[in-house]
Amino acid sequence: MNKFKQFGEDVDGYQVPVLNEREVRASAGILFLFAFISLMIIIFKGNFMIAKFFVIIFLFDFTIRVFINPRFAPFLIIGRFIVKNQQPEYVGALQKKFAWIIGLVLAGLMFFFLIVLNTYSIITGLICLICLIFLFFESVFGICLGCIFYNLIYKEKAKYCPGYSCEVKDRADIQKINKTQYLFFLVFLIYLVVSIYLLKNTFSVKPESLWVKIGVKKEASITNDAK
Fold first, then answer.
1. Close Cβ partners of 218 (under 8 Å, ≥ 6 residues apart)
2. Rounded CA gap, 108 and 128, in Å?
């Protein structure tokens, strides 16, 4: 626990070093939010400044995670503060390190293309998209895509995965999807398709300001009364 440079923490009852999945997900959610905002600013404003700042922050954070100690990574510290009153959920550190190495490589590529070369291309776009997908799955679903790749590459399978997903076990009844649920989902898809087909022209009309619309109606009413 007191070691400065290590990956993961030793907790009684666990055979390998572990991390708190709750703070990892919290940090992933924060990073996803900033990455998404940066992307929207690029798309709608054509401004890359926020994205460049995000890249150097992301690179710094993941460098600390991989080469020093996750405990000192700024966004994991923020995540720890946010979920400090929640019961820890321990996950194996080894597979997380593999996932974060992937993140570090992606951040390094973005740093090279976007900051060193000061360029953008389909390459930077794809890297950004991959990062967003990884962060989204981690924060929203609790699914570590990098950890899945770890299991595909290494013979020694990951231990202590989120939600005990590493262990082979039968799903509980509450996890199973029955025929009625599939039917309702099919109804939803039909509803979605029909709605798009029938309402696409109506929904394509740009909304007016409510206050302007009310003001116009009031002015028209006053004019009619005067007549």
1. none
2. 12
